[in-house]
Amino acid sequence: MRTLLAALLLVPIVALEATGQAPADSGRRSPIAAGIMSFIAPGVGSAYAGNNYHGAIHGSIALTLAVGGAVAAVADHCDGQDCPGQNQTAIVVIIAAYVTNQVWSVFTAAKDARAYNRWFEQPKKVARIEIGPTLQAAAIHGGATGPHLEVRLLRVAY
């Protein structure tokens, strides 16, 4: 089984290396892909969409609930005695909280991907700083001042 899983994971890598190129990245993030990633592992879709904070929050909650559920399940033993499940309520609450976090993570990842795409499509403002002497000569028409010579050492454009 491990060999089959390793082969399935290596096939795409080998195929990419055989072609010598990586898949084109448009820069946009798919909300569907982000949701699927977060369904598989809560928080991963938000990290894919560029929001590492949401990814860390959902991942931490999922990990904490998984460890708490495992501890509650292991602690619920009676050593062969006929006793009711003492931690059944805790386990049900932990499972409900995990499922809630997982659903919340899917919707948050899709929202993060849409927000990333809106940010990606906005025109970016660029600040430019020019340092050094710049000579600019211009004749001003219609004025009595004649030719104009301007010397600048620093120019900041935004």
Considering the chains and any ligands shown, give keywords for the structure:
158 residues; alpha+beta; 2 domains; two-stranded antiparallel sheet; 2 strands; 58% helix
Describe this entry's structure for a reader.
The protein is an alpha+beta fold and 158 residues long. The chain folds into two domains: 24-121, no CATH class; 128-157, no CATH class. It is 58% helix and 15% strand. The chain has a two-stranded antiparallel sheet with strand order 1-2. The longest helix has 34 residues, at 88-121.
Q: Strand content of the residues, in percent? A: 5-15%
Q: Nearest-angstrom radius of gyration?
A: 30 Å
- What is the average of the pLDDT values? 74
What is the count of β-strands?
A: 2
What is the domain total for the residues? 2
Give me the strand/helix succession: HHHHHEE
